[in-house]
Amino acid sequence: MLFRFHSTYRKNKNSEQTDAHAKASSPSVLARSANISGRNKLKEIGATSFTEVVILGFFVLPLISGSHLLITIMLFLLTLGVCYETIRLVGNLSLKRKIGLGMVYALVFFLLYNAYVPLIVHLIFASLAIILLIFNIYLPLGATMQKLLLGYPVLFIPFIAFLAFSTQHPKIILFTYLVVESFDSFAYLGGKIVGKTKAFPKLSPKKTVEGVLIGAVTAIAIGYIAAPYMIEFTQLELLTLVAIIIIGTLLGDLTASKLKRNIGVKDFGNILPQQGGILDIYDSIIFTAPIVFIYLIAIK
């Protein structure tokens, strides 16, 4: 039964106050509030779903198409976004130095992406990228070096192309992305539901041991289920590959957290609502690519 008091006239002041209170707390008002709250939640869910579709579509659709042109365009835009974010965050450098830094990033990308560059050059850059990744996590660095290291994720992006254009076509990078997302998602959910023990209190306070374990087990299971349809590896090679992807994902996440902590920002950018910048969205796959690349070279 709905209670409505606005049509009743009250002479007594106290009665008027009681009437106002009853009106404010009536089920009709509560229902309207609930509807508004429900609509806001639906809008939030809709916005989040839309951004997730954009994120997946931007990265996955070119790979599924198998088109070298679409993959190249996607990687070019990815590199452009990372360069913009990192140069913007460098801060107090002059415009000339920022332009110079951008040209260095572009040159490195060109050299790595160029098919005529010997394999040893790619391996050197991949090794350098991984060493910088580990150094950034564990070594204390000065403010200038921290800002300069913002640009080194550009070293990693061409290795996505190498994986996409490998003998197993884009399926290898699709498989890598599937394992990365599985680990990330279930590590987050596991940490939220049962997480108690902090895994990396200083670098990533929200990560828990329980969440990491749940994410790893789930990623291994999903990797084993998906592998027969996507890639051709022996059981041992597959297990090693999934383990490497999980480790790379974890290192990438910790590196991104450390970089943001060093320069005092929450996100690298604001390209999509509730998601942050390019590096916030694709950090794990970007940092994992060279590690997977080196592993594939090693087992050939």
What would you say this structure looks like, in words?
The protein is an all-alpha fold. The chain has one domain (68-299). It is 74% helix and 3% strand. The chain is built from 11 helices and 2 strands. Strand 1 and strand 2 (204-208) form a beta hairpin. It is globular, with a radius of gyration of 25 Å. The N and C termini lie far apart (75 Å).
Short description:
It is built from 11 helices and 2 strands.
The percentage of residues in β strands lies in under 5%
Major beta sheet summary:
2 strands, antiparallel
**Can you give the helix content as a percent range?**
over 70%
**Regarding quaternary structure, how should these chains be classified?**
single chain
Number of strands: 2
H/E element sequence: HHHHHHHHEEHHH
Structure class:
mainly alpha
What does the radius of gyration come to? 25 Å
**Nearest-integer average pLDDT:** 73
Which sequence of strands runs across the widest sheet? 1-2
| Overall shape | globular
Number of DSSP helical runs:
11
Measured between the Cα atoms of the first and last residue, the distance is 75 Å
Q: Indicate how many domains the architecture comprises.
A: 1
Give unreliable regions as ranges. 1-36
